[in-house]
Hints:
By secondary structure, the protein is mainly beta. It has helices at about 55-60, 65, 140-145, 205-210; strands spanning about 80-85, 95-110, 110-115, 130-135, 160-165, 175-180, 190-195, 215-220, 240-245, 255, 260-265, 270-280, 290-295. It has one domain (about 80-295). The chain has 4 helices and 13 strands. Strands 1, 2, 3, 4, 5, 6, 7, 8, 9, 10, 11, 12 and 13 form a 13-stranded antiparallel β-sheet that branches. The model is unreliable at about 1-70 (pLDDT under 50).
Amino acid sequence: MLATLTLPCLAACTMANPLFDYYEISGDETGLDEGLGDEAGPDSEDGPGASGGNANEDAGGEDAADSEGLACEPELGEALAPMFGDPVLLSEVCQPYIDVQVKVFAKQSGQWMAGACPSGDCSDCDPDDLHPLGILGLPLEQILPAPVPTENDVAVACYEVEAAHPAGKSDACYYETVAIWEAGEDYEPPLVLAVRDASELGPKAAASLEGWWPQIAVEGEPCGCDALAGVPCCLDEDGVQTFGFDLSEAGGAVVGPMDPPANIQLDGYDYTFVPAQAQAGVSCGVDELSWAIFREPSY
Length: 299
């Protein structure tokens, strides 16, 4: 069975238990790079400068915005949301720490639906007691398509999941870190690892990555909170600061929260690094670092 249930969700757990057909995918799935850097600028075909041009530019003068200096607009990313567990099926209680084997029986909106395996070897996993396993903000099914489970080979579609540091949301059991291995392969780096809000890794994930963590590179000048109208932020002298992830120690480069995924290598395995969020001073919290890595499965 899953680990002992000891802590309640920090908010009410109200998600009804959905019914999913085996291996039917519903909802829209988007590619990892979709929507990156494609916003229409002021001089695009649909922008205000599409016809007639700017009077100052036509006269060879300086644009009014340039004369006033560039606005301070930090590129703020949205956090990933790792999750495992249906709080309704868990008697309204999300567990403080999970290390369990599961079998993936269904898929929903780019994520997995997995049955827990009480014996620990995927021989008695429950296909009717399904828990969402995924990373909101990252389509798990696209980056790691699980094979169709079979009765003849209990190891097919069988994974080990470590979820640590509950995030306290209500519609599913969300965690600050979730790592996924092929069952019995946890001595290797994980197939997928997702982190939000600079949280520490779970102990098994930290051990398998031998303490690896992306370094932080400061990018740009801090922006005062008055530059972010409507966004709650810390009213201190530093304002809002954005960062990049320095991946040079793993063979990569510096990538920011709005940049495409990057290629790195960890312990001899090729990984893709997704820089979702890298900022401080927003919502008056700790440094908000949200990222994921994933590699090709061995099957």
